[in-house]
Amino acid sequence: MARRTKAESEETRKRLLDAAELLFSKRGVTNTSLADIAAAAGVTRGAIYWHFKNKVDLFEAMHARVRLSVDEIESEALSATDPLTGLRDYWTHSLLRVAHDEQHRRVIDILFRKCEYVDEYQTASIRISEWSGEIIHAMTGIYTRAAEKGALTPRFTPQAAARATFSMVTGIVFSWLAVPQLYSDDDEIVATVDIFFDALKP
181-185: which pairs have CB atoms within 8 A and are 24 or more residues apart? Predict the structure, then answer.
């Protein structure tokens, strides 16, 4: 019985997150209330507080479902023939996931364009900034190894290459969400990433 109760609790949590995603995407975070989310999920408002402290906590849990893993970036990059190839493949696959995974794309769109990071959401903004910093730090280490192997152009320091890579990826995502016709098929995304990483080679 306890196992079933746990499963039901997890299902309720998932329904709340799914409902929040859809409403945040349609109305924006500020214009969506916890009561709206509860109604859309078919549960009481009290059920929300069983799983989440407040709307910010729910918002951060939504992000966690699609958040990139620093460990995955390092693992894929460092297991490749050379670090640049590993990073190129990782970011190509990540961008194609945004293109083809509707849930992933919806959450990224909410993070980029449907939330005002003011008042209580400043905390969420800080955590997103910290997560971004962790990714840049991990890539700096990867580019340091590439430089040691002579695989990174001396025009870029590892730190500059990491910052440029992060800016390239987030720039593609933001511009594509705003103007979808910029990248009409997978080949254009792949070509853009390839051009960037070719510029990092000696």
Answer: 183/99
111 in the same domain as 18? no
Q: How many CA atoms lie within 13 A of 29 on its CB side?
A: 27
CB atoms within 10 A of CB 130: 9
Model pLDDT, residue 2: 45
Domain with 35, as residue range(s), is: 2-63
User: CA Rg, the chain, in Å?
Assistant: 19
What CATH number is given to the structural domain containing 37?
1.10.10.60
Share of the chain above pLDDT 90, in %: 82
Q: Residue range 29-58: average pLDDT?
A: 95
Residue-wise pLDDT tens digits, 155-183: 999 999 999 999 999 999 999 999 988 88
Q: Are residues 50 and 124 in the same domain?
A: no
Residues 38 and 76 grouped into a single domain: no
Residue 9 and residue 108 share a domain: no
Q: In this structure, which amino acid lies at residue 101?
A: D
Per-residue pLDDT band for 4 (boundaries 50, 70, 90) equals low
DSSP alpha helix (H) spans, the chain: 2-27, 34-41, 45-51, 55-64, 70-79, 83-100, 102-113, 122-148, 158-178, 186-199
Contact 131/67 with Cβ under 8 angstroms?
yes
Residues 7 and 57 in one domain: yes
Domains held by the chain: number: 2
